[in-house]
Every structure is written in structure tokens, then in C-alpha cells.
Amino acid sequence: MSASFDQGIALELHKIAARRPHGDFLRPAAQLRIADHLADGPRSGTELADAIGADPDALQRFLRACAVIGLVAEVGPGRFENTELGAALRSGTVLHHVAIASSCPALRRPTEAMADAVLNGKRVIKQVLGVDRIWDYYSSHPDEDEHYAALMTVLSERTGDDLARVFDLSRFSRIVDIGGSSGVLLTRLLEAAPNLTGAVFERPAYQEAATALFAERGLSDRAEFIGGNFLDGVPGGADLYVIKHVFCDWPDEAVAKVLAHCREASEPGAVVLIIDWVLPETTEKTTKGGVAERFAGEQLHLQNFIQLLTLDGKLRTWPAFRDLLRSEGFEAGGYTPFSEGLNYIEAVRR
Ligand SMILES: C[S@@+](CC[C@H](N)C(=O)[O-])C[C@H]1O[C@@H](n2cnc3c(N)ncnc32)[C@H](O)[C@@H]1O
Fold first, then answer.
1. What is the CATH number of the domain that holds 51?
2. Ligand 1 pocket check: which of 203, 231, 253 to mutate, most ligand atoms within 8 Å of Cβ?
3. In the chain, which stretches have pLDDT less than 50?
4. Which GO terms describe its molecular function (predicted)?
5. In total, how many domains does the chain have?
6. Potential cystine with 150: which of 91, 97, 196, 335 (Cβ 3.0-4.6 Å)?
7. 53 and 19, same structural domain?
8. Is 202 in the pocket of ligand 1 (CB under 6 A)?
9. Is the CB of 102 under 6 A from ligand 1?
10. Residue 300: predicted pLDDT
């Protein structure tokens, strides 16, 4: 899978994915490999139906819906070509996986039981996916896990670059990225700070992808993968623990546990750098920031509920983060927005 992609197109894809029913068309378009079949130029719906082995009428209707969304353009009656966005979904690309991940069962099915979640205040994943934790589901559905990892890669690539621009990494010597997926954030940080070594601490399922990425980026001598469960402990020896988009997946008790492990594993003065959404205290719409920030801002209250469905997770306000950190022996002075609606919180171990 090629890890490079256009950031603007990725954002456009996220916007489509967030709309219904528009977002529902992304996964089948990628599964049917429409982009691949149009790679050599415009084709009629009938030619495409032959190539794909599809029902001609159903495909024509599907393609016209895709044209409305912007995945293809109808260049003459019943004749279609790739748009720039559609072409970006060709197979073998990270955005192909993102398109599939956007409406995979793991992310979509839990919404069927939203009312139950409201009534019971508990995650509904057991009744819709038959597992207790989403990570158990991904462990037994490696294909879906691969699509999900691609989604996280796309979300994290720019974060790494943006963080390296605003956060001084040179004062540290070793990073551990807790729940660091297949390593894209760590690679971006290590590339920006040649004096650092680092490790991704993750579920063992990501070992192969992460080590391949480290090798591809020429970082095998500075980056390693450590498999494990952050609820049981975290690796010692780091002075910077990065934890991005992880605490939003967990209830307070679990977050407190991970912070306590970071404290046990580190020396006074070590930093836990939380990179996450910070929930606004009201639903007042923001007009500040660029398109990406505004889009992200509007999503936060939706996301805050969605985190409950599969994970018992939640978004946190700044005071909620501050109090959790304090209770586990960390001090933080505030949060800094720095990348597409994301913030960092630098918490120092007392
Ligand atoms: C929302 S993803 C965030 C990934 C990455 N930090 C990013 O932002 O791209 C949460 C990650 O936590 C990992 N994870 C979940 N439970 C874990 C556990 N108990 N121990 C270690 N990693 C875990 C998942 O595999 C997943 O990659």
C-alpha cells in the first residue's frame, strides 16, 4: 500500500464520509474498483458493467450517484471518467482503504443502536458486533483492521508534521507513542528530530506494518515496535510519551490507569503529550480558523456521542483533562490547538 496521499483530497473524502447517504457510496465505489476501471480514460456505463461484471442498469444508477458526490464525472450521456477525487481512490492507495473504512461495519453498525446507548448510558458494541471491545473485533477481522489503520495513518500524517513545527522535540531523547498504530506519527517525529529514538507501543497486530514503515523510511535503527497492552503497563526509559487519539476511546478509569503507568515508567520531568480533541463546553458554532478547523469543530459534539457507542469513550473538556492529569501526578498549563481541530496538552510528571 502506498502511504503517500494528497491532504486536500483526504479532507474532502472525510467530509463526504461524514454525510449520509453520500458517505455510503464511498465503500462500494472502492470495493468495485471504479477508479481502476476508469484509469485509462472515459468509458460508457455498459463497458464498465462488462468489465466489472455488474448489472448495467444498477451500475448506471450507482455511477450517477457517484457523479453527484464527485467521485466520477459524466462526460456524455452514460459515459463516465474519474475525477481527481475518484482517481485518488484507486486500489493500492491509502485513500482506497480510507474509503472502505469510512463505512465498515465496525464504524457503522453501532449507530443502529443509538437509542439503546442513550437509554442505558453504555456501549452497544456487544449487541451489534458480538464483541466486548472494538479491538477484539478488529483482531478477528484483519481486513477491516487494515482499512482502519489506513484511516488512522491519514489522520496522523499531517499531525506529525504540524506538531514537529510547533513543539520543540530537541529537548527529548526518547519517545514512546502509546497506541501509535502502524507508526506514521512516530516516523514523522523522528524525521523531524534526528537526535531522537522512539518506539510504538501497540497491539501486536500492527507489528508487521510498523516495522515495514520504519524500514521504508530508513528509520529501523531509531524506531522499534513494542507489542503490548497499555492497560497493563507501558515501556520505561522514555522522556516523552505521546498519546494521540487514544484517551477519547476510553472512560476515565482506563485513562487514569494509563497515566499511572506512564508515571511508574518515567522519571520526574518526563512529559506526557496528549494529542486529542478538546470538547467545547457549549454547542455554539465556531467561525474561527480555516475550513479544516471549522469542520473539525462542528464534528466534536457528534463524535462525543459516537465514542460512547463502541468504546465507552468520550471527548473531554480542558478542565476534565486537567483534573485527570492532576490526580495521576501530572501538571499541565493548558491546551494548544495546532492541527485540524486537534490540540496538544503537555503534561509534566511531578
Ligand atoms: C484511535 S486509534 C489511534 C491510533 C494513533 N494513535 C493515531 O492517532 O493515529 C487507537 C489505537 O489504540 C490501540 N489500542 C487499543 N487498545 C490498546 C491497548 N489496550 N494497548 C495498546 N494499544 C491499544 C489501537 O490498536 C489503535 O491503534
1. 1.10.10.10
2. 203
3. none
4. O-methyltransferase activity; protein dimerization activity
5. 2
6. 97
7. yes
8. yes
9. no
10. 87
